[in-house]
Specification:
The protein is an alpha/beta fold and 565 residues long. The protein has helices spanning 2-17, 20-44, 51-72, 119-134, 144-147, 157-164, 208-222, 229-236, 243-256, 261-278, 282-297, 305-320, 325-337, 341-354, 359-371, 375-388, 393-396, 398-405, 413-422, 427-439, 443-456, 461-474, 477-483, 486-493, 496-509, 512-524, 530-536, 547-562, and strands at 73-76, 79-82, 103-106, 110-111, 140-141, 168-177, 180-189, 194-204. It is 64% helix and 8% strand. The chain is globular.
């Protein structure tokens, strides 16, 4: 009985999703009007008595045609397109909906200052409170990237809490006028929409650090969380005491997350201003190292001199604070770029030990474990990452990435589609979703996504490699090879992710030597997932008998077996 009810529920959901219900209502309304008009015209215009009968028969015949058309096609402002099937739900990407008792999201504090340019300050206060609360081990705190998706939202507290699976919501506002500050904060229990705690703070700009600490401590008290000595110490710690330097840091942080060359240049200027005010500081320096890493990570500037600058910054950060989590993250990604994989893993694990809710470290370490064929170790990291950062699009493809590395290709479409749904304008989300379709031979759907990339980002590396795959699957070898210019190959050579995609593209084309060349490049970058290369990757079945490949696999197997989690 329950199974039948579930089937009826799913069928009703599908009728609504395909707009069939709306078509039925509109068709019935229009048909009724037409039948009334037919009778009116027949009598007033002396039309034959069979006229209204013909209209009625035509409407009856048209009804199932309209239903079938609305089921298959979607009519929108973009024209008539085929309605896509809703992806199968995959249990690997589901989040446990049991709401943790002590869990919280800090919504972006609203800037109610007369100057809209002060928004960086309210965003910065939000981020600092999130950081403080994240040090409390008994409290699950939603990360900055997920919290910021609710900026300016009109959703209710209950809706927000439900989306991120938490019980408590902190919201507030900031008014900054010259040197005067007024901050309002309130804690709401989403289970009954009641105010658990609320407070107003007035003071000067120099009081911001004390206010920040008070808010965090009073939330802990309201939730009956007892702080241990280490947590108490972290809440009392302030890496920057100079308010002008702190403002420089906040302005820089808001620019780093824009992922643009102009934004990164502005971030460097703000950070240099802060350093000029107070000298070397671990928070300012680590943020500067993050800017240089973002240049390389986003492919905006691939000058190897940036690695030298990051190395200098890392040395300064650890000289100032040897227990700084962000310093270990920075050194971890730096080591990974240098192909010092074991050192990278060690640093990222220390960063997570110092700050168990550091999303960047969780993401990078999970990615490295996947590439090294240690997917079981990646799973618990991904689960925790989805708990604290459930609305970050890239996190939703991670369960699919794990299944991909385990050769479960039939399970990878749904999580990649989820990432694409959350951020359809992100080229990487489009590309990843297209690849999941390619691996499942859903070629027409994949081609459409590549066409979107081609229209919106025709010269990007992502688009070029996407076209490479499209032409390869279409059997257009000349066009495929033409896309892979020297410039594209040089950019792809610098990353494990791109090298992995390129070798599969050459494999589709039947280019055995080039396939093995690029597998070796990927292996040199840390892709030592022996089970995937030796068994799961069906696109390279045609080269597994090659002696050169067998020799390379001996090396990969040894490194895979010796890789310590």
């Amino acid at each position: 009985m329950a199974d039948n009810q579930n089937k009826l529920s799913r069928f009703w959901h599908e009728l609504k999703r395909r707009k069939v219900v709306g078509v039925i209502i509109v068709y019935a309304t229009v048909a009724f009007i037409l039948m009334q008009l037919a009778q009116l015209f027949e009598s007033s215009l002396n039309l034959p008595p069979w006229f209204d009968t013909v209209i009625t028969i035509a409407l009856i015949i048209g009804f199932p045609i309209a239903i079938i058309f609305s089921w298959i096609f979607d009519v929108s402002s973009k024209g008539i397109t085929k309605t896509e099937d809703e992806p199968e739900k995959d249990s690997t990407s589901k989040i446990d909906k049991t709401v943790p008792e002590k869990s919280i999201i800090v919504l972006p504090f609203e800037n109610i200052s007369s100057d809209p340019e002060q928004e960086y300050f309210s965003d910065g206060l939000t981020e600092e409170i999130i950081t403080d609360l994240s040090y409390i081990n008994d409290l699950l705190v939603i990360s900055r990237s997920s919290a910021m998706t609710f900026k300016g939202t009109k959703q209710t507290i209950k809706e927000i809490a439900g989306k991120v699976n938490v019980r408590y919501v902190l919201e507030g506002s900031v008014r900054k006028s010259g040197n005067d500050l007024r901050i309002v904060a309130q804690l709401i229990d989403s289970s009954n929409d009641s105010h658990t705690w609320a407070e107003k703070y007035s003071g000067k700009l120099d009081d911001i650090f004390d206010i920040q600490e008070k808010v965090s401590r009073e939330i802990a008290d309201a939730l009956k969380v007892k702080l241990n000595p280490e947590e108490d110490k972290e809440l009392a710690k302030h890496s920057i005491q100079n308010i002008q330097a702190y403002e420089s840091f906040l302005k820089a942080r808001s620019e780093i997350w824009r992922f643009s060359e102009e934004g990164l240049e502005r971030a460097l200027n703000h950070l240099d201003n802060g350093i000029n005010l107070i000298g070397d500081n671990e928070l300012l320096l680590a943020a500067k190292g993050m800017v240089y890493w973002q240049y390389l990570n986003a492919g905006i500037n691939t000058d190897k001199k940036l690695l030298q600058e990051i190395h200098k910054i890392i040395q300064k950060v650890f000289a100032l604070n040897p227990d700084f989590a962000q310093g270990y993250f920075l050194r971890g990604v730096y080591n990974y770029m240098l192909q010092n994989f074991h050192a990278a893993v060690k640093d990222l694990k220390i960063a997570i030990r110092l700050d168990s809710n550091h999303p960047d470290s969780l993401l990078e370490l999970a990615r490295i474990y996947n590439s090294a064929g240690k997917t079981d170790a990646a799973k618990h990291l991904v689960k925790h990452l989805l708990d604290i950062d459930p609305l970050n699009p890239i996190n939703h493809q991670l369960p699919g990435f794990i299944d991909f590395m385990d050769g479960k290709f039939d399970k990878i479409v749904e999580p990649h589609y989820k990432m694409y749904q959350l951020d359809p304008t992100n080229p990487f989300a489009c590309f990843s979703y297209a690849l999941s379709l390619f691996w499942n031979k859903r070629l027409d759907e994949a081609y459409k996504i590549i066409e979107i990339l081609q229209n919106e980002n025709p010269e990007s590396l992502i688009t070029k490699i996407g076209l490479f795959w499209k032409y390869a699957f279409e059997g257009k070898k000349t066009e495929a090879l033409k896309v892979m210019t020297q410039d594209v190959l040089e950019k792809a050579r610098s990353s494990e992710i791109w090298a992995r995609v390129v070798f599969n593209g050459y494999a589709i084309l039947g280019e055995k030597e080039r396939t093995i060349d690029w597998i070796e490049i990927a292996v040199n970058h840390g892709f030592i997932n022996y089970p995937f290369l030796n068994e799961y990757d069906y696109l390279i079945d045609n080269i597994r008998g090659e002696e050169r490949f067998k020799k390379l696999m001996k090396r990969v197997k040894k490194e895979w077996e010796n890789f310590e989690v």
